[in-house]
Predict the 3D structure of the following.
Amino acid sequence: MPYGDRVDREALRTRLDTATADLDPPLAVVDLDAFDRNADDLVRRAAGRPVRVASKSIRCRTLLERVLRRDGFAGVLSYALPEALWLHGVWAGTDLADTDLLVAYPTADRAALRALAADDHAREHIAVMVDSVAHLDFIDIALGPDHPPVRVCVDLDVSWRPVFGDRRVHIGAQRSPLFDVAEAAALAARVRARRGFRLVGLMGYEGQIAGLGDAPVGNPLLGALRRVLRRGSVPELVRRRAAAVEAITRGGPLDYVNGGGTGSIEETGSDESVTEFAAGSGLIGPALFDNYRAFTPDPAVLFALPVVRRPGPGVATVFSGGYTASGPANRLRLPSPHLPAGLSLIGTEGAGEVQTPVTGPAADALAVGDRVWFRHAKAGELAERFTGYHVLEADRITGIAPTYRGEARAFG
């Protein structure tokens, strides 16, 4: 059921405004009830296979720890080696000390590699990503000869490359150069044959499915085109990834085969070679994830901005708000007014660094000091704007969950 059909927006606004009445915006809130519902839904969709939490979409240690302690979740898909080292260090001596951390992107951080090599326990629980011999060479140069074994995962490109006429088209993220089964198997063999490395996994992120909603709000034609893309892409990538796993495991077993994202768990699940899913945005429920048919997460993190001006009829201006998401520079990357219902950004200004005007039927009822609640377009990036999320449990604020920024950590 679409989010808007199952949630009383005005009741939610009253709940948020009442719970935060003693706090001054700008502020951000994490609704733990919504967060937990989203976690339950990811486990349901994963249908028995574990979900590795994508930390890039969370960037809040309190929330990472909360979800990792739930059944159905295992391991972290980290986005930077220094981040993985930090998480491993702060979890030492806790029940999360043995959490498996896979760094999703190749690293060129020599200091972090040296820290990894120097920590026996970290090396047993952190794996770095490689997609070429150049990555192995870089690690060797950074660590010197005879370095201790570094766990690595091979990144398989699972984009779709259909042929139209006499032209092959690349549909998906520009990630790994390893597209063919033989290329992936050859690199895996090179890793196994090379001193100082241990192959533990294979990863394939199908961004053309996981990151593109198949039911974009207000654009049924685009949704139809994306569903065609899914129907064409999924069978090809399932065959190719399964063949790559078969070829690689002839040389020895893998600890895991990681696939998917929040937006593609059902499709990725049709590939029996995948042993675990990666997901994180589905826990937060950002605005871009309103555009899928198979699931609709609840917005678990929202931020409030105060009305500071009433420049004219039908317009209210809030302080700050220019929290633009990464990706193609378009309106879909802008934060969206959520509460009260019936507000939208103004096309000539969008979301501004120091002020953001909103317009619509609800604007005339807003007074200076009132709050407008927004949703960010993407999940984890809001954490770069706030030092902490105020924790909403039931109808009251029970504390603050520091973001990475609030713990003086920045990894990108």
